[in-house]
Amino acid sequence: MPLTDQIQQGESKTLELKESLPKNESIAKTIVAFSNTSGGKLIIGVNDQLSIVGIDDTMLFEIQDKIASIISDSCFPGIIPDIYSVNIEHKLVLVIEVVRGNQKPYYLKNKGQEEGCYIRIGATNRLADPATIAELERQKHHISYDEEVYYDLELNKLDLSPLLDKFKHTGKPLNNEKLENLKLIKTSNDKIYPSNALMVILGKFPHCTIKCARFKGTTMETFIDKKEYSGDIFTALENTQNFVLNHINLQAEIKGLYRDEKYEIPVVALREALVNAIVHRDYVNQGRDIKVGIYDDIVNIVSPGSLPNNITMDDIFNGRSEVRNRVLANVFKELGLIEQWGSGINRIINACKNYGLQSPIIQEKNDYFDIEFIRPQITVSSKESIEQDQSIRQNYERLRTITNDYERLDKEKRTILLYLLEKGKISRKEATILLDLKNTKTYEILTEMVGQNLIKKQGKGRATYYMLS
């Protein structure tokens, strides 16, 4: 992007603008913060109104030498910036550009690591706390927080059934060897310990919660309903999704012999956003949690933690993948909850567009990641239609008591379940007409559903019929 365009976008995580040369320590703080975060440019000669005022070109070399000396004398480990001038609108601006460092944490020499380490949050430089400094150390050694071993608890003190059941459901057995390969456990001195990732998956850390609220109107002044979900990560995901679905509109249209239900927001996009929030959130910061807010106009999902330091929003939209929690992401990939690296954001956007909705607003806001689904405006006639068809929602909730994987079932199986909720029973002939399939294919589907305990078979011969289990 041309430098003039960058300037017009204003200050950001990777850009700071100054009208004149700032104080020595201010320069050093910004350079340290850029080096610890995503790199960036400090541009001198631009005022608060984003107008180019330039610098005194007779002082150019003197200013360059002064800045180089400030950075060399003030920053540790050593930072080598690229200092150059650019002529814009016949005026000279000075650019101090630094790349993301690989010797983190960087800090001010005269203050030391604890009091002189800065990071870039939004358009500001902030003093790093001890947890953030530890994370910078991990980044230097290419280790993610969730890979680290949790030595305060042995594995035999944990109930692994939520994780074991999830893998069993996907047909993938999980033994200690597999757990170790996935970096979920580690053996040390003949004892087996969980990693931070396993503790997160099992919901053993107090900040591994998701707070959900349905607010009245478009502000947070009054809430209608609120829930807080903790426990294992998979149950929290399902409960959160169900909470949202319970508070957004469900519409239906008649297709053949049954009603085809459709939520106002595509479930696939909603689930993808929730999975992203869980997998990519910053678990180092233990003072915050994931928040899901439902308003009259939007559904908002907020996940703690800005983007990983070496990636930008442009990279995200272009499909680049950078994983903060490598172990968690790998487990979700194994379970099919992540389909393809780097495809999640665009899949969310495309699902909404194909649904006829506005593209969701996806932003990095300071030190958290924010997704807003725009809810379609409901007209009076559509409101009446929804109110008259509350039985659809009730049926849908009843289906959830039959199977937690309702959205993942084939359309034909969902059709039969909806029919059985209304009619009570169905014969093979009725099912063949309902599905508009050949008799053998219908029988195959019915047999599979019996095997999945979704329905049960009653009677014999021509008198055979099927009911809900």
UniProtKB/TrEMBL annotation:
**Which InterPro entries does the UniProt entry name for this protein?**
HTH_ArsR_DNA-bd_dom, RecG_C_sf, Schlafen_AlbA_2_dom, Schlafen_AlbA_2_dom_sf, WH-like_DNA-bd_sf
Q: Where is the HTH arsR-type domain?
A: 394-469
**Annotated Pfam families:** HATPase_c_4, SLFN_AlbA_2
- Species, as recorded: Echinicola arenosa
Q: Which domain of life is it from?
A: Bacteria
What is the protein's name according to its record? DNA binding domain-containing protein
Classification of source organism: Bacteria, Pseudomonadati, Bacteroidota, Cytophagia, Cytophagales
